[in-house]
Design goal:
single chain, 356 residues, alpha+beta, Rossmann fold, Dna Ligase, domain 1, D-amino Acid Aminotransferase, Chain A, domain 1, 3 domains, 9-stranded antiparallel β-sheet, 4-stranded parallel β-sheet, 11 helices, 17 strands, binds adenosine monophosphate
């Protein structure tokens, strides 16, 4: 166990790192951020920052020597960086092997299939000829995605019966892709589960996610689904966490079909945007759970004390920050980003309704 006073190293300097560092500070830990960015949101609230590229081996070695445990706040850091840190003798949670699965959509879906978790039907496509074959196999409506470095809908192309496949292939813009059947879902939900080294796990109730332009817009907690579906979704998330052997926090994004099937879309081995509501509405936030898990502390209770609706403040939305301050039910979170570019997550606001 790492006692309070120890230093947690975080790869990545975005808002997830920032909110993890704030939770860590409350428990008496220090954070050291590793990021290539200047004035990163996480750096603004942390004791130290190493500003370097993720491929800078010397900087990684210095960082490893300066911290007690390491985690990451986004999954697109090179797995080699995480492996180098393990080789330097520092524990990295979640393990680099988990990162390798989560940062590759094909490996992720193959893994899910290997543990009997249902996903949309999919095919690997490495050429335009393979894409044509895959479209024939999967059916007329599908989504072509890059295998790596895709998030918030980047590198995704919707394919219909009239789509020009050559154009779709070049629009995707990578050498390898995955073609997934389009899921005509009733709703999108996610479950966040924290898991400790002992195997103990704590899951939050499923929440409902609304996307606009592929970016999460609103999370409704809890999801408006039947208790039976909620139990199934939670069981899937626990099963995936257990099979990954993850130490940390895992978000499992799922589609619920009109027939009541639950299909896993994506895994994120880190705190997730759809878990931000836990800061203001649960006994223990997803960020505190990450700190507890990586430091070997007992996990906290995930129990909600309030229902919540979380709205992302994207791009120019953030200009209305003053209005949220006058809403007594609203908790405003701003990430300290200077430039409000379109599509950029600038903050979020959670409206809470106490359960009792
Ligand atoms: P992803 O980057 O895979 O999380 O996808 C972003 C969003 O695109 C999802 O949350 C869905 O709203 C939508 N989407 C992705 N894959 C599919 C699919 N196979 N069928 C229908 N919608 C999808």
């Amino acid at each position: 166990m790492l006692a309070p006073g120890s230093t947690i190293g975080i790869l990545g300097g975005g808002q997830l790192g920032r909110m993890t560092a704030l939770a860590a500070a409350r428990l008496g830990y220090k954070c050291h951020i590793f990021t290539p960015e200047d004035d990163a949101p996480a750096s603004q609230v942390s004791a130290r920052t190493t500003k370097a590229d993720y491929t800078d081996r010397e900087a990684l070695a210095r960082f490893a020597a300066a911290v007690d445990v390491i985690t990451f706040e986004f999954e697109n850091i090179p797995a080699e960086a995480a492996e180098a840190l393990v080789a330097a003798g520092r524990p990295v949670h979640p393990a680099p092997s988990v990162l390798r699965i989560a940062q590759d959509r094909l490996r992720e879906k193959d893994f899910l299939r290997s543990i009997d978790v249902a996903t949309a039907n999919y095919r690997e496509v490495g050429s335009i000829a393979a894409l044509r074959r895959a479209v024939r196999d999967i059916g007329p409506l599908s989504v072509l995605k890059t295998v790596r470095l895709g998030y918030d809908g980047k590198g995704q192309v919707l394919i219909g019966p009239d789509t020009d496949l050559e154009a779709a292939w070049s629009k995707m813009g990578a050498d390898v892709g995955i073609l997934e059947a389009f899921v005509d879902f009733g709703c999108e939900i996610s479950v966040i589960v924290a898991r400790a080294e002992s195997g103990a796990a704590a899951a939050y109730p499923p929440v409902e996610n609304k996307h606009v332009d592929h970016i999460l817009d609103t999370t409704i907690a809890p999801a408006r689904i039947t208790p039976e579906l909620a139990m199934r979704a939670e069981a899937i998330a626990r099963h995936v966490a257990e099979k990954l052997g993850i130490v940390g926090v895992l978000a499992v994004e799922m589609f619920v079909t009109p027939k009541g099937e639950v299909l896993v879309n994506e895994l994120a081995p880190r705190p997730h945007n759809s878990g931000h509501w836990t800061i203001d509405a649960c006994q223990t936030s997803q960020f505190e759970q990450l700190v507890r898990a990586v430091c070997g502390l007992p996990l906290g209770s995930p129990e909600p004390h309030s229902d919540a609706v979380m709205k992302n403040l994207i791009g120019a939305d953030v200009e209305k920050w003053r209005e949220w301050l006058t809403d007594p039910a609203a908790k405003l979170h701003l990430y300290g980003k200077r430039e409000a570019r379109p599509g950029r997550k600038m903050g979020h606001v959670t409206r809470v309704v106490p359960r009792r």
